[in-house]
Amino acid sequence: MDKKLIGQLIKSLDDGLNQEEVDELNSTLATSKPAKKELERLQDIRQSIQSEKTESFRPYFAQRVMRRIARLKEIKHESDLFKSLMVVFRPVAVSTSFIIAVILIYNISTGNFTSLESILGIPEYNLENITYAAY
Known about the structure:
Blueprint: H1 3-14, H2 19-31, H3 33-51, H4 61-110, H5 116-120, H6 127-134
Helix pairs in contact: 1-3, 2-3
């Protein structure tokens, strides 16, 4: 069966056809038994659907579904952003850790350090340093 003919049959049941399309469809139905059977089948399907007792969805069902889909897209987009930031951050973190290790090794090997504070370059706590930090 021709897709155009099926489209015309469905359109005749739904929206209606203009006069030219009605004439063409009537001539096709008059000459074609399969087209008549298809129209009867579509009408039977339509009748059984209309006679079927169904519960309807609550109001604004389509809007709720679309909002959920949008939220899922946002979550996916956020996870993609997180993954891309991790791809960029990982090499920076590794290279920074390596540089810090090199600086610590250099400070330990060249100086006479007796405490962890002196190795890390933390100044002594005295009144001058504390008042300077407060302002």
